[in-house]
């Protein structure tokens, strides 16, 4: 067994022509800064508007880049992967595994999510404050009624 999951998520080959702003996407990951727990893969975190990747439309935030111009990105540090992208030339062929994992280590803003999240702690704090305010109001109302 070679460790690959078959039919789990589609593998795709994407050819991009480097534009004025490069390939038009940001990456994270590598052996030295894992983006997903126990995974040293290289992942797309941001597609830049009007960049080569956005104009092509197939590369998505959360996709894992497996190879660039036939060179596997497995077991590389982040800087080594960046250097491969920098020196890849004008026409760049990417082999990509589409889809992303929910076990990301990176900061929430780098994951591509646009919706703000509401934490359970925040909901509990607001609920507690409302309950306390209601108790104070009822106690005050009760005291005024007893006079």
UniProtKB/TrEMBL annotation:
Main localization of the protein described in the UniProt heading: mitochondrion
SUPFAM superfamilies from the UniProt entry: PDZ domain-like (SSF50156)
Any one biological process term the GO annotation gives: cell-cell adhesion
Stretches that traverse the bilayer: 118-138
Pfam assignment, any one: PDZ
Any one GO CC term of the record: mitochondrial outer membrane
Residue ranges occupied by any PDZ domain in the UniProt entry: 13-100
Keyword list, A-Z: Membrane, Mitochondrion, Mitochondrion outer membrane, Transmembrane, Transmembrane helix
Molecular function as annotated in GO: protein kinase binding
InterPro entries (UniProt xref): PDZ (IPR001478), PDZ_sf (IPR036034), Synaptic_Scaffolding_LAP-MAGUK (IPR050614)
Cellular compartments annotated: Mitochondrion outer membrane
Subunit structure: Binds (via the PDZ domain) to isoform 2A of SYNJ2 (via the unique motif in the C-terminus). Interacts (via C-terminus) with RALBP1. Interacts (via PDZ domain) with ACVR2A (via C-terminus) and ACVR2B (via C-terminus). Forms a ternary complex with ACVR2A and RALBP1. Interacts with MAPK12. Interacts with DLL1; enhances DLL1 protein stability, and promotes notch signaling in endothelial cells.
Protein name (database record): Synaptojanin-2-binding protein
Species of origin: Acipenser oxyrinchus oxyrinchus
Gene this chain is encoded by: SYNJ2BP
